[in-house]
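Q: Hi! New to this. If I give you a protein sequence and the SMILES for pyridoxal-5'-phosphate, can you show me the bound structure?
A: Yes, paste them in.
Q: Okay, here:
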Amino acid sequence: MNIKENLDTIGLHIKEACSRTNRQADDVHVIAVTKYVSDETTRKAIKAGVEHIGENRAEAGLLKKKAINEQATWHFIGSLQSRKVKQVIHEFDYFHSLDRVSLAKEFQKQAEDGQTINCFVQVNVSGEESKAGVHPDELLSFINQLEAFPAVRVLGLMTMAPYTERPEETRPVFSGLRKLRDEVMSLHLPHAPCTQLSMGMSNDYVVAIEEGATFIRIGTALVGNEATSN
Ligand SMILES: *Cc1c(COP(=O)(O)O)cnc(C)c1O
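A: Thanks. Here is the predicted structure of the protein with pyridoxal-5'-phosphate bound:
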């Protein structure tokens, strides 16, 4: 696994996708998802130039962050149990899976005075039963309810597309999330600027960028998967 080479390849794909769609490549941030790799590999990724690290488990993510002790921006990308908020709230910089009022309430409870919790609201655009996230029809009402929790700031929306061998098939999911983002953004809500889109993984990030992704979350194609030894 040559992380530097992978990062360069992804950078090239970002550039190409942005020039096809008249976007600035600088607006697309790469989160290296390190949930299947060691501390050592994660450290290598940071040394290779990765600035954003994504973890989906509270305990494992915290242990890794402590072990690595390198400068990076940490993203919590997995589903988060309310009882674990206390452990992670001061350790991660972004939370990608705000999907229920009870979680916002716990963020509010555990936040320090004046602390802002940077969140993405996870939306289940594809409607797959196995996927977490707010139903698109309930998004506006959900975001309105979040106004009651001043620590919570909705920076954007996040989704996961169903896995497919043909990434082109994911396009409606990503364009659907972008339309929802535009709708929320146009309301100019102080607690929900909602300018960002967290979407796109190893197999579908190019399509996600074409549809407006500002944070792509890449594991396998960037740092590999040491759990399956590839
Ligand atoms: C694991 C994971 C990713 C990265 O998946 P890859 O297909 O390995 O790139 C992205 N987002 C979330 C929420 C994940 O859990």
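A: The first strand starts at residue 29 and ends at 33. Let me know if you'd like me to explain how to read the tokens.
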